[in-house]
Protein backbone atom coordinates (compact mmCIF):
# COMPACT_ATOMS: atom_id res chain seq x y z
CA UNK A 1 0.00 0.00 0.00
CA UNK A 2 1.47 3.32 -1.04
CA UNK A 3 -0.21 5.48 1.59
CA UNK A 4 -2.93 5.85 4.15
CA UNK A 5 -5.71 8.33 4.73
CA UNK A 6 -5.54 10.71 7.67
CA UNK A 7 -7.99 13.54 8.35
CA UNK A 8 -6.99 16.35 10.73
CA UNK A 9 -9.89 18.75 11.21
CA UNK A 10 -11.70 17.51 8.12
CA UNK A 11 -8.79 17.84 5.64
CA UNK A 12 -8.02 15.06 3.15
CA UNK A 13 -4.48 13.71 3.44
CA UNK A 14 -2.70 11.27 1.15
CA UNK A 15 0.42 9.93 2.95
CA UNK A 16 3.20 8.27 1.00
CA UNK A 17 5.66 5.85 2.56
CA UNK A 18 8.71 6.36 0.37
CA UNK A 19 11.58 8.06 2.20
CA UNK A 20 15.12 7.97 0.89
CA UNK A 21 18.32 9.53 2.18
CA UNK A 22 20.42 10.65 -0.75
CA UNK A 23 22.54 13.47 0.62
CA UNK A 24 22.70 16.26 3.12
CA UNK A 25 20.06 18.86 2.36
CA UNK A 26 21.18 21.86 0.32
CA UNK A 27 18.87 24.09 2.35
CA UNK A 28 20.55 26.95 4.17
CA UNK A 29 18.59 28.22 7.15
CA UNK A 30 19.45 31.77 8.17
CA UNK A 31 18.08 33.47 11.24
CA UNK A 32 18.69 36.72 13.11
CA UNK A 33 20.47 37.13 16.42
CA UNK A 34 18.35 35.51 19.20
CA UNK A 35 18.62 38.76 21.17
CA UNK A 36 16.64 40.39 18.37
CA UNK A 37 14.35 37.44 17.72
CA UNK A 38 11.53 39.24 15.95
CA UNK A 39 10.58 35.94 14.31
CA UNK A 40 9.65 34.43 17.71
CA UNK A 41 6.98 37.02 18.40
CA UNK A 42 3.38 35.77 18.26
CA UNK A 43 2.55 37.98 15.28
CA UNK A 44 5.10 38.78 12.59
CA UNK A 45 5.43 42.40 11.62
CA UNK A 46 7.71 44.61 9.64
CA UNK A 47 11.07 43.86 11.20
CA UNK A 48 13.68 46.51 12.01
CA UNK A 49 16.95 46.82 10.17
CA UNK A 50 18.00 43.14 9.94
CA UNK A 51 20.92 41.74 11.83
CA UNK A 52 23.50 39.61 10.04
CA UNK A 53 22.03 36.27 8.99
CA UNK A 54 23.70 33.04 10.07
CA UNK A 55 23.95 30.34 7.38
CA UNK A 56 24.10 26.62 8.02
CA UNK A 57 23.27 23.38 6.19
CA UNK A 58 20.42 21.36 7.72
CA UNK A 59 19.93 17.59 7.70
CA UNK A 60 16.18 17.14 7.04
CA UNK A 61 16.26 13.35 6.69
CA UNK A 62 13.13 11.95 8.28
CA UNK A 63 11.83 15.38 9.31
CA UNK A 64 8.58 16.94 8.15
CA UNK A 65 8.65 19.96 5.83
CA UNK A 66 5.36 21.63 4.95
CA UNK A 67 4.98 23.41 1.61
CA UNK A 68 1.76 25.43 1.36
CA UNK A 69 0.73 26.06 -2.23
CA UNK A 70 -0.27 23.97 -5.21
CA UNK A 71 1.18 25.77 -8.22
CA UNK A 72 4.48 26.13 -10.04
CA UNK A 73 6.20 28.08 -7.24
CA UNK A 74 5.38 25.39 -4.70
CA UNK A 75 6.52 22.71 -7.15
CA UNK A 76 9.94 24.37 -7.51
CA UNK A 77 10.35 24.36 -3.73
CA UNK A 78 9.33 20.70 -3.61
CA UNK A 79 11.85 19.84 -6.32
CA UNK A 80 14.63 21.36 -4.18
CA UNK A 81 13.58 19.21 -1.23
CA UNK A 82 13.08 15.85 -2.96
CA UNK A 83 16.63 14.56 -2.50
CA UNK A 84 16.95 15.60 1.15
CA UNK A 85 15.15 12.57 2.61
CA UNK A 86 12.60 14.86 4.25
CA UNK A 87 8.94 13.92 4.64
CA UNK A 88 7.44 16.54 2.32
CA UNK A 89 3.83 17.55 2.92
CA UNK A 90 2.18 19.79 0.32
CA UNK A 91 -1.04 21.55 1.28
CA UNK A 92 -3.42 23.52 -0.95
CA UNK A 93 -7.04 23.57 -2.14
CA UNK A 94 -5.82 22.12 -5.46
CA UNK A 95 -2.53 20.78 -6.85
CA UNK A 96 -1.04 21.08 -10.31
CA UNK A 97 -0.41 18.02 -12.47
CA UNK A 98 3.25 17.57 -11.49
CA UNK A 99 2.52 17.65 -7.75
CA UNK A 100 -0.30 15.13 -8.22
CA UNK A 101 2.15 12.86 -10.04
CA UNK A 102 4.70 13.13 -7.20
CA UNK A 103 1.98 12.22 -4.71
CA UNK A 104 0.96 9.22 -6.82
CA UNK A 105 4.61 8.05 -6.77
CA UNK A 106 4.64 8.33 -2.98
CA UNK A 107 7.34 10.97 -2.97
CA UNK A 108 5.21 13.59 -1.21
CA UNK A 109 2.18 13.66 1.07
CA UNK A 110 -0.69 16.01 0.36
CA UNK A 111 -3.27 17.93 2.38
CA UNK A 112 -6.23 19.18 0.35
CA UNK A 113 -7.93 22.28 1.73
CA UNK A 114 -7.18 25.71 3.16
CA UNK A 115 -4.34 26.14 5.63
CA UNK A 116 -5.00 25.49 9.30
CA UNK A 117 -2.60 25.53 12.23
CA UNK A 118 -2.85 21.74 12.49
CA UNK A 119 -0.89 21.43 9.26
CA UNK A 120 2.16 22.52 11.24
CA UNK A 121 2.02 19.50 13.55
CA UNK A 122 5.43 17.76 13.47
CA UNK A 123 6.83 20.26 10.94
CA UNK A 124 10.31 21.67 11.44
CA UNK A 125 10.06 23.99 8.46
CA UNK A 126 7.24 25.56 6.48
CA UNK A 127 7.42 27.21 3.06
CA UNK A 128 4.55 29.51 2.14
CA UNK A 129 4.32 29.47 -1.66
CA UNK A 130 0.81 30.75 -2.28
CA UNK A 131 -0.24 33.81 -4.27
CA UNK A 132 -2.43 35.02 -1.36
CA UNK A 133 -0.66 37.62 0.81
CA UNK A 134 -3.20 37.22 3.62
CA UNK A 135 -2.71 33.46 3.69
CA UNK A 136 1.06 33.83 3.63
CA UNK A 137 0.95 36.19 6.59
CA UNK A 138 -1.29 33.77 8.51
CA UNK A 139 1.13 30.91 7.80
CA UNK A 140 4.10 32.98 8.99
CA UNK A 141 2.22 34.02 12.14
CA UNK A 142 1.27 30.45 13.00
CA UNK A 143 4.82 29.24 12.42
CA UNK A 144 6.26 32.07 14.54
CA UNK A 145 3.91 31.21 17.41
CA UNK A 146 5.21 27.63 17.36
CA UNK A 147 8.80 28.72 16.80
CA UNK A 148 8.96 26.88 13.48
CA UNK A 149 11.19 28.27 10.77
CA UNK A 150 9.20 29.77 7.90
CA UNK A 151 10.09 30.90 4.41
CA UNK A 152 7.53 33.08 2.66
CA UNK A 153 8.34 33.22 -1.03
CA UNK A 154 9.24 36.74 -2.19
CA UNK A 155 8.60 38.22 1.26
CA UNK A 156 11.80 38.68 3.23
CA UNK A 157 10.04 40.56 6.03
CA UNK A 158 7.84 37.57 6.90
CA UNK A 159 10.60 34.98 6.48
CA UNK A 160 12.70 33.68 9.38
CA UNK A 161 14.82 31.70 6.90
CA UNK A 162 15.90 32.32 3.33
CA UNK A 163 16.41 29.68 0.67
CA UNK A 164 19.63 30.49 -1.18
CA UNK A 165 20.70 30.22 -4.76
CA UNK A 166 22.96 27.15 -4.99
CA UNK A 167 25.86 25.75 -6.95
CA UNK A 168 26.05 21.94 -6.60
CA UNK A 169 28.94 19.64 -7.39
CA UNK A 170 28.08 16.29 -5.84
CA UNK A 171 28.22 16.61 -2.06
CA UNK A 172 29.91 19.99 -2.44
CA UNK A 173 27.46 22.87 -2.34
CA UNK A 174 27.91 26.62 -2.46
CA UNK A 175 25.01 28.70 -1.21
CA UNK A 176 24.50 32.39 -2.01
CA UNK A 177 22.01 34.53 -0.13
CA UNK A 178 21.23 38.23 -0.16
CA UNK A 179 19.07 37.88 2.93
CA UNK A 180 16.00 38.02 0.75
CA UNK A 181 16.70 41.61 -0.23
CA UNK A 182 18.21 41.08 -3.69
CA UNK A 183 17.43 37.57 -4.97
CA UNK A 184 18.28 38.49 -8.55
CA UNK A 185 21.79 39.47 -7.43
CA UNK A 186 22.22 36.10 -5.70
CA UNK A 187 21.00 34.36 -8.87
CA UNK A 188 23.41 36.37 -11.01
CA UNK A 189 26.34 35.39 -8.78
CA UNK A 190 25.25 31.75 -8.92
CA UNK A 191 25.31 31.85 -12.72
CA UNK A 192 28.84 33.25 -12.64
CA UNK A 193 30.01 30.59 -10.18
CA UNK A 194 28.51 27.82 -12.30
CA UNK A 195 31.02 28.63 -15.03
CA UNK A 196 33.99 28.78 -12.65
CA UNK A 197 33.72 25.43 -10.85
CA UNK A 198 34.35 22.24 -12.80
CA UNK A 199 31.98 19.29 -12.44
CA UNK A 200 34.93 17.15 -11.30
CA UNK A 201 34.84 18.95 -7.95
CA UNK A 202 31.99 16.62 -7.04
CA UNK A 203 34.21 13.59 -7.64
CA UNK A 204 37.00 15.22 -5.64
CA UNK A 205 34.66 15.88 -2.71
CA UNK A 206 33.48 12.25 -2.81
CA UNK A 207 37.07 10.95 -2.88
CA UNK A 208 38.06 13.03 0.14
CA UNK A 209 34.86 12.03 1.92
CA UNK A 210 35.62 8.33 1.41
CA UNK A 211 39.22 8.82 2.56
CA UNK A 212 38.48 10.95 5.59
CA UNK A 213 38.90 8.21 8.20
CA UNK A 214 42.21 7.04 6.66
CA UNK A 215 43.55 10.60 6.55
CA UNK A 216 42.62 11.30 10.18
CA UNK A 217 44.20 8.04 11.32
CA UNK A 218 47.44 8.69 9.42
CA UNK A 219 47.59 12.40 10.34
CA UNK A 220 45.97 12.94 13.76
CA UNK A 221 47.61 16.36 14.09
CA UNK A 222 45.35 19.07 12.63
CA UNK A 223 48.12 21.33 11.24
CA UNK A 224 49.67 18.31 9.50
CA UNK A 225 46.30 17.45 7.93
CA UNK A 226 45.92 21.00 6.67
CA UNK A 227 49.30 20.83 4.97
CA UNK A 228 48.38 17.44 3.48
CA UNK A 229 45.18 18.83 1.98
CA UNK A 230 47.07 21.83 0.62
CA UNK A 231 49.40 19.46 -1.26
CA UNK A 232 46.51 17.32 -2.49
CA UNK A 233 44.45 20.22 -3.80
CA UNK A 234 47.43 21.83 -5.54
CA UNK A 235 48.77 18.57 -6.91
CA UNK A 236 47.79 16.30 -9.84
CA UNK A 237 44.70 14.70 -8.28
CA UNK A 238 42.17 17.38 -9.41
CA UNK A 239 43.52 17.10 -12.98
CA UNK A 240 43.20 13.30 -12.90
CA UNK A 241 39.56 13.61 -11.89
CA UNK A 242 38.91 16.16 -14.63
CA UNK A 243 40.11 13.52 -17.08
CA UNK A 244 37.78 11.00 -15.48
CA UNK A 245 40.63 8.83 -14.14
CA UNK A 246 39.23 8.12 -10.68
CA UNK A 247 41.43 5.03 -10.15
CA UNK A 248 44.68 6.96 -10.66
CA UNK A 249 43.38 9.75 -8.45
CA UNK A 250 42.68 7.25 -5.66
CA UNK A 251 46.17 5.78 -6.00
CA UNK A 252 47.77 9.24 -5.97
CA UNK A 253 45.90 10.14 -2.81
CA UNK A 254 47.09 6.99 -1.05
CA UNK A 255 50.68 7.57 -2.22
CA UNK A 256 50.61 11.10 -0.84
CA UNK A 257 49.18 9.82 2.41
CA UNK A 258 51.86 7.14 2.77
CA UNK A 259 54.58 9.70 2.05
CA UNK A 260 53.21 12.43 4.33
CA UNK A 261 56.22 13.99 6.09
CA UNK A 262 56.31 14.62 9.85
CA UNK A 263 55.03 17.96 11.03
CA UNK A 264 57.52 20.79 10.66
CA UNK A 265 56.59 24.32 11.53
CA UNK A 266 57.55 27.51 9.76
CA UNK A 267 57.07 31.23 10.29
CA UNK A 268 55.96 33.91 7.87
CA UNK A 269 56.56 37.58 8.63
CA UNK A 270 53.61 39.35 7.04
CA UNK A 271 53.11 43.07 6.58
CA UNK A 272 49.52 44.06 7.34
CA UNK A 273 49.81 47.59 6.01
CA UNK A 274 48.41 50.51 8.01
CA UNK A 275 44.84 49.23 8.37
CA UNK A 276 42.85 49.18 5.14
CA UNK A 277 42.42 45.44 4.34
CA UNK A 278 42.28 46.28 0.65
CA UNK A 279 45.99 47.09 0.78
CA UNK A 280 47.02 43.55 1.76
CA UNK A 281 49.01 41.69 -0.85
CA UNK A 282 47.64 38.47 -2.33
CA UNK A 283 50.59 36.65 -0.78
CA UNK A 284 49.71 38.02 2.67
CA UNK A 285 46.10 36.96 2.26
CA UNK A 286 47.09 33.41 1.33
CA UNK A 287 49.40 33.12 4.33
CA UNK A 288 46.64 34.35 6.65
CA UNK A 289 44.38 31.63 5.31
CA UNK A 290 47.03 28.94 5.84
CA UNK A 291 48.09 29.94 9.36
CA UNK A 292 47.55 27.82 12.45
CA UNK A 293 48.65 30.64 14.76
CA UNK A 294 48.78 34.40 14.16
CA UNK A 295 50.89 36.59 16.44
CA UNK A 296 49.71 40.11 15.69
CA UNK A 297 50.54 43.63 16.75
CA UNK A 298 48.01 45.50 18.86
CA UNK A 299 47.32 48.03 16.11
CA UNK A 300 46.60 45.55 13.31
CA UNK A 301 43.06 46.42 12.29
CA UNK A 302 40.10 44.17 13.07
CA UNK A 303 39.22 44.21 9.36
CA UNK A 304 42.59 42.66 8.49
CA UNK A 305 42.31 40.05 11.26
CA UNK A 306 38.85 39.13 9.95
CA UNK A 307 40.50 37.87 6.75
CA UNK A 308 42.41 35.17 8.63
CA UNK A 309 41.27 31.57 8.66
CA UNK A 310 38.35 31.24 11.07
CA UNK A 311 39.94 28.59 13.30
CA UNK A 312 43.42 30.14 13.47
CA UNK A 313 44.59 31.01 16.98
CA UNK A 314 45.01 34.79 17.37
CA UNK A 315 47.57 36.00 19.92
CA UNK A 316 48.05 39.73 20.48
CA UNK A 317 51.72 40.54 21.15
CA UNK A 318 51.74 44.29 20.61
CA UNK A 319 53.79 46.65 22.69
CA UNK A 320 52.13 49.39 24.73
CA UNK A 321 53.25 52.91 25.53
CA UNK A 322 55.22 52.90 28.76
CA UNK A 323 55.70 49.13 28.72
CA UNK A 324 58.92 47.14 28.81
CA UNK A 325 59.53 46.79 25.08
CA UNK A 326 62.65 44.64 25.51
CA UNK A 327 60.81 42.10 27.66
CA UNK A 328 57.84 42.12 25.27
CA UNK A 329 60.09 41.48 22.27
CA UNK A 330 61.80 38.61 24.09
CA UNK A 331 58.38 37.12 24.74
CA UNK A 332 57.54 37.40 21.04
CA UNK A 333 60.75 35.59 20.14
CA UNK A 334 59.92 32.81 22.60
CA UNK A 335 56.39 32.39 21.23
CA UNK A 336 57.58 32.27 17.63
CA UNK A 337 60.08 29.52 18.43
CA UNK A 338 57.67 27.51 20.61
CA UNK A 339 54.85 27.55 18.09
CA UNK A 340 57.07 26.70 15.12
CA UNK A 341 58.82 23.85 16.95
CA UNK A 342 55.35 22.48 17.76
CA UNK A 343 54.88 21.95 14.01
CA UNK A 344 52.56 24.91 13.41
CA UNK A 345 52.44 27.37 10.57
CA UNK A 346 52.90 30.72 12.27
CA UNK A 347 52.18 34.16 10.86
CA UNK A 348 53.85 37.09 12.58
CA UNK A 349 51.49 39.84 11.48
CA UNK A 350 52.93 43.33 11.73
CA UNK A 351 51.43 46.71 10.95
CA UNK A 352 52.93 48.33 7.88
CA UNK A 353 56.00 46.48 6.60
CA UNK A 354 57.91 44.10 8.89
CA UNK A 355 61.29 45.45 7.71
CA UNK A 356 60.50 49.14 8.21
CA UNK A 357 60.82 49.85 11.95
CA UNK A 358 59.08 46.54 12.59
CA UNK A 359 61.99 44.63 14.20
CA UNK A 360 61.46 41.95 11.59
CA UNK A 361 65.19 41.51 11.14
CA UNK A 362 65.65 40.70 14.83
CA UNK A 363 62.89 38.11 14.72
CA UNK A 364 64.33 36.40 11.65
CA UNK A 365 67.72 36.21 13.33
CA UNK A 366 66.15 34.34 16.24
CA UNK A 367 64.35 31.94 13.89
CA UNK A 368 67.52 31.33 11.89
CA UNK A 369 69.46 30.54 15.07
CA UNK A 370 66.92 27.82 15.91
CA UNK A 371 66.91 26.32 12.41
CA UNK A 372 63.29 27.33 11.74
CA UNK A 373 62.16 27.93 8.15
CA UNK A 374 60.78 31.38 7.44
CA UNK A 375 59.60 33.69 4.69
CA UNK A 376 58.60 37.34 4.40
CA UNK A 377 55.54 38.89 2.77
CA UNK A 378 56.18 42.65 2.55
CA UNK A 379 53.46 45.13 3.41
CA UNK A 380 52.80 48.73 2.41
CA UNK A 381 54.60 50.82 4.98
CA UNK A 382 52.68 53.56 6.80
CA UNK A 383 54.52 56.49 5.21
CA UNK A 384 53.60 55.42 1.69
CA UNK A 385 50.00 54.41 2.42
CA UNK A 386 49.11 57.24 4.82
CA UNK A 387 50.73 59.78 2.56
CA UNK A 388 48.71 58.54 -0.40
CA UNK A 389 45.41 58.49 1.54
CA UNK A 390 46.05 61.98 2.92
CA UNK A 391 46.94 63.47 -0.47
CA UNK A 392 50.61 63.96 0.43
CA UNK A 393 53.03 62.89 -2.32
CA UNK A 394 56.30 61.95 -0.63
CA UNK A 395 58.32 63.30 -3.54
CA UNK A 396 57.44 66.18 -5.80
CA UNK A 397 59.39 67.75 -8.65
CA UNK A 398 59.06 71.24 -7.19
CA UNK A 399 59.30 70.50 -3.47
CA UNK A 400 61.07 67.25 -2.54
CA UNK A 401 63.69 65.20 -4.35
CA UNK A 402 64.17 62.68 -1.54
CA UNK A 403 62.29 61.13 1.36
CA UNK A 404 63.57 59.88 4.71
CA UNK A 405 61.85 57.44 7.04
CA UNK A 406 62.74 58.19 10.67
CA UNK A 407 61.75 56.55 13.93
CA UNK A 408 61.55 58.33 17.27
CA UNK A 409 62.52 55.04 18.97
CA UNK A 410 65.93 53.40 18.64
CA UNK A 411 67.29 50.21 20.16
CA UNK A 412 68.52 51.80 23.41
CA UNK A 413 66.18 54.79 23.36
CA UNK A 414 69.16 57.09 22.68
CA UNK A 415 69.03 59.69 19.95
CA UNK A 416 71.75 58.94 17.43
CA UNK A 417 69.82 60.77 14.70
CA UNK A 418 71.63 63.01 12.23
CA UNK A 419 69.45 66.08 12.79
CA UNK A 420 71.66 68.27 10.61
CA UNK A 421 70.96 66.03 7.61
CA UNK A 422 67.25 65.93 8.43
CA UNK A 423 67.07 69.72 8.63
CA UNK A 424 68.04 70.16 4.99
CA UNK A 425 65.30 71.46 2.73
CA UNK A 426 63.77 69.95 -0.43
CA UNK A 427 63.17 66.60 1.24
CA UNK A 428 60.24 64.92 2.98
CA UNK A 429 60.58 63.47 6.47
CA UNK A 430 58.24 60.75 7.68
CA UNK A 431 58.47 60.21 11.45
CA UNK A 432 57.13 56.89 12.73
CA UNK A 433 55.98 56.52 16.34
CA UNK A 434 56.70 60.16 17.01
CA UNK A 435 53.45 61.44 18.56
CA UNK A 436 54.91 61.55 22.06
CA UNK A 437 58.10 63.31 20.94
CA UNK A 438 56.77 66.13 18.79
CA UNK A 439 58.30 68.93 20.84
CA UNK A 440 61.76 67.31 20.63
CA UNK A 441 61.39 66.81 16.87
CA UNK A 442 60.41 70.45 16.33
CA UNK A 443 63.18 71.82 18.52
CA UNK A 444 65.92 69.66 17.01
CA UNK A 445 64.93 70.42 13.41
CA UNK A 446 64.67 74.18 13.97
CA UNK A 447 67.93 74.19 15.97
CA UNK A 448 69.71 72.58 13.03
CA UNK A 449 68.39 75.02 10.47
CA UNK A 450 64.94 73.87 9.33
CA UNK A 451 62.60 76.78 8.66
CA UNK A 452 59.98 77.08 11.44
CA UNK A 453 57.38 77.78 8.72
CA UNK A 454 57.95 74.35 7.09
CA UNK A 455 54.57 72.66 6.56
CA UNK A 456 53.80 69.56 8.65
CA UNK A 457 50.96 67.04 8.63
CA UNK A 458 49.89 64.53 11.24
CA UNK A 459 47.91 61.58 9.88
CA UNK A 460 46.00 59.66 12.54
CA UNK A 461 44.46 56.25 11.78
CA UNK A 462 45.67 56.53 8.22
CA UNK A 463 43.74 54.53 5.56
CA UNK A 464 41.03 53.63 8.10
CA UNK A 465 37.48 54.86 8.42
CA UNK A 466 38.46 57.23 11.26
CA UNK A 467 41.38 58.84 9.44
CA UNK A 468 42.18 62.41 10.49
CA UNK A 469 44.73 64.76 8.93
CA UNK A 470 46.01 67.82 10.79
CA UNK A 471 48.17 70.30 8.88
CA UNK A 472 50.15 73.30 10.09
CA UNK A 473 53.74 74.46 10.46
CA UNK A 474 56.74 73.05 12.24
CA UNK A 475 56.70 75.88 14.79
CA UNK A 476 53.23 74.96 16.05
CA UNK A 477 53.64 71.18 15.82
CA UNK A 478 53.14 70.20 19.50
CA UNK A 479 50.23 72.62 19.86
CA UNK A 480 48.57 71.16 16.75
CA UNK A 481 48.64 67.67 18.26
CA UNK A 482 47.39 68.87 21.65
CA UNK A 483 44.62 71.03 20.22
CA UNK A 484 43.26 68.25 18.05
CA UNK A 485 44.13 65.47 20.53
CA UNK A 486 46.08 63.44 18.04
CA UNK A 487 46.89 59.94 19.32
CA UNK A 488 48.55 56.77 18.07
CA UNK A 489 48.56 55.30 15.52
CA UNK A 490 49.75 58.45 13.79
CA UNK A 491 52.60 59.40 11.48
CA UNK A 492 54.19 62.81 11.05
CA UNK A 493 55.19 64.31 7.69
CA UNK A 494 57.55 67.28 7.56
CA UNK A 495 58.23 69.13 4.32
CA UNK A 496 56.61 71.37 1.73
CA UNK A 497 54.59 68.45 0.33
CA UNK A 498 52.63 68.26 3.62
CA UNK A 499 50.76 71.44 2.67
CA UNK A 500 49.43 69.74 -0.46
CA UNK A 501 47.04 67.73 1.74
CA UNK A 502 44.81 70.82 1.87
CA UNK A 503 44.27 70.56 -1.90
CA UNK A 504 44.84 66.91 -2.75
CA UNK A 505 43.01 65.11 0.05
CA UNK A 506 40.48 62.57 -1.26
CA UNK A 507 39.86 60.08 1.54
CA UNK A 508 37.90 60.79 4.72
CA UNK A 509 37.23 64.19 6.22
CA UNK A 510 39.06 67.31 4.97
CA UNK A 511 42.24 68.19 6.87
CA UNK A 512 42.12 70.18 10.09
CA UNK A 513 44.32 73.27 10.18
CA UNK A 514 46.69 75.26 12.34
CA UNK A 515 47.70 78.24 10.21
CA UNK A 516 45.10 79.75 7.85
CA UNK A 517 44.82 78.02 4.49
CA UNK A 518 46.36 81.01 2.74
CA UNK A 519 49.58 80.67 4.72
CA UNK A 520 49.80 76.97 4.03
CA UNK A 521 49.16 77.53 0.34
CA UNK A 522 52.02 80.01 0.23
CA UNK A 523 54.29 77.51 2.00
CA UNK A 524 53.48 74.93 -0.67
Automatic annotation (TrEMBL):
Gene Ontology BP term (one): siroheme biosynthetic process
Which reaction equations make up its catalytic activity?
Answer: siroheme + 2 H(+) = sirohydrochlorin + Fe(2+); uroporphyrinogen III + 2 S-adenosyl-L-methionine = precorrin-2 + 2 S-adenosyl-L-homocysteine + H(+); precorrin-2 + NAD(+) = sirohydrochlorin + NADH + 2 H(+)
- List the InterPro entries: 4pyrrol_Mease, 4pyrrol_Methylase_sf, 4pyrrole_Mease_sub1, 4pyrrole_Mease_sub2, CobA/CysG_C, NAD(P)-bd_dom_sf, Siro_Cobalamin_biosynth, Sirohaem_synt_dimer_dom_sf
- For the modification Phosphoserine, which residues carry it? 178
A Pfam family in this protein?
Answer: CysG_dimeriser
Q: What is its EC number?
A: 2.1.1.107, 1.3.1.76, 4.99.1.4
Q: What HAMAP family has UniProt attached to this entry?
A: Siroheme_synth
- NCBIfam families xref list: cobA_cysG_Cterm (TIGR01469), cysG_Nterm (TIGR01470), PRK06136.1 (NF004790), PRK10637.1 (NF007922)
Annotated protein name in UniProt = Siroheme synthase
Amino acid sequence: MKGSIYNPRGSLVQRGSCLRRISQTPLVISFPDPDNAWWMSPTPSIRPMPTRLFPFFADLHGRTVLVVGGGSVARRKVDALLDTGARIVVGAPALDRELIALAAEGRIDTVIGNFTDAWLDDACLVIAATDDAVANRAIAAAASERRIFANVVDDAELSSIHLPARVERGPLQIAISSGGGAPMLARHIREQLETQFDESLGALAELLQRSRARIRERLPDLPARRRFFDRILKGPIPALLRRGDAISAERALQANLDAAPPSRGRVALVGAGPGDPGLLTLRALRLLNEADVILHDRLVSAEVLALARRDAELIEVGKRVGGDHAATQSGIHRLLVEQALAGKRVVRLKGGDPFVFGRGGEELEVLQSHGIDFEVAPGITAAIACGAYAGIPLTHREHAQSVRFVTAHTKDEDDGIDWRALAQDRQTLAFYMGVSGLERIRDRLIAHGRDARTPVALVENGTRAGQRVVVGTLAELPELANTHRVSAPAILFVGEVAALATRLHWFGAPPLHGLPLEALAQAA
